[in-house]
Design brief:
The chain is built from nine helices and ten strands. By secondary structure, it is an alpha/beta fold. It has a domain of 138 residues: Rossmann fold. Strands 6-7-8-3-9-10 form a six-stranded mixed β-sheet, with helices on both faces. The protein has a four-stranded antiparallel β-sheet with strand order 2-1-4-5, with helices on one face. The longest helix is centred in the last third of the chain and has 18 residues. The chain binds adenosine-5'-triphosphate (ATP). The site of adenosine-5'-triphosphate has 13 residues, from β1, β2 and α2. This is ATP-binding cassette domain-containing protein. One of its GO terms (cellular component) is plasma membrane.
Amino acid sequence: MSIVEEKLKNSAGSTVFSSSEVMLDLNNLKKIYPTPKGDYVVLEDLNLQIKKEEFVTIIGHSGCGKTTMLSMIAGLNPITGGNISVLGKPIKGPGPDRGVIFQAPSLMPWMTSLQNVMLGVNQVFPHATKAQRSDIAKYYLQKVGLEDAFHKRASDLSQGMQQRVGIARAFAIKPKVLLLDEPFGMLDSLTRGELQDILIEIWNKEKITAVMITHDVDEAIFLADRVVMMTSGPKAKIGDILDINFERPRTRKTVLEHDDYYKYRKHLIDFLEH
Ligand SMILES: Nc1ncnc2c1ncn2[C@@H]1O[C@H](COP(=O)(O)OP(=O)(O)OP(=O)(O)O)[C@@H](O)[C@H]1O
């Protein structure tokens, strides 16, 4: 049995990490949406532990409940049953310990890139001086390649540039966990690749935990330490977890040329097709 086959076999079982390793713990999570036709149980018995500094990608069929799960972690969607904790503390709503990047960055269109990033920074660091807050915002805008666009209005930026501001805004509040809901879904493949690289570079430097929903199997493999597969709803749960053992830093070329790449890909596609 190859190393990959052994890993695939092991990762099919549920993993339990020691509490000191765990950043995010989803415990018997349940979500019901009331509908005119009665209660719709989207998620049930969903258990997942995510380690500190881990990058986890989430895949599953459209409508299975990925966004529901992520928005519950963000504290934006009430939990019906079970609980979610960050560093052992149950979450009670949104908080600066969790940054969110959505598919559309929803910036204030009349504000500049800098002003948009400053909005979050001002809230999270109210005791810092204005110059310090501005330095934080500029640092992350520069990290996403927008050093020449600090004073451009959001409405004048391309979609890719707006998403760069969204990434800078999320990192600038220095969250413990970064939650990403298909952040590159609306971008062309070249911009998508560029932003994946930027995301990984900052994630690597900041050592935060990242949970990202994607529909793209190649993106899921390239970015992740583990790919989490959700079963189809109703009553969706975690169906399988695949460890991705490529060394970091990764380049697309080395990943694509690696023998294990196609085994990982086949595993994910087999899961999605059954
Ligand atoms: N507020 C709501 N009220 C009722 N049903 C809802 C609500 N929000 C989502 N749903 C339903 O819950 C299910 C899960 O939705 P969710 O958006 O979480 O899925 P998803 O896996 O993120 O989908 P996609 O991949 O298409 O974005 C879907 O059937 C959806 O129609």
